[in-house]
Amino acid sequence: MPAVVHHGGASTTAAVLRSGIPSVTVPFKTYQPVWGEKLTRLGVSPAAIPYHKVSEENSSGSD
């Protein structure tokens, strides 16, 4: 299934919502966690992943 991984900026979040594509946020700046939390509360995204916890070891992507 296609999905978007994004930083959670306001414009990017709006574009993702308009597209209807599943997404997950990986915020790394001040206000970005707020948008990740809003997406989670809306029930359209899992909880945001802190950028410092993203690694090759915990990704579920395939090579």
UniProtKB/TrEMBL annotation:
InterPro entries xrefs: Glycosyltransferase_28 (IPR050426)
Highest taxon, organism lineage: Bacteria
Gene3D superfamilies: Glycogen Phosphorylase B
Classification via PANTHER family: STEROL 3-BETA-GLUCOSYLTRANSFERASE (PTHR48050), STEROL 3-BETA-GLUCOSYLTRANSFERASE UGT80A2 (PTHR48050:SF13)
Protein name, UniProt field: Uncharacterized protein
Native organism: Nostoc flagelliforme FACHB-838
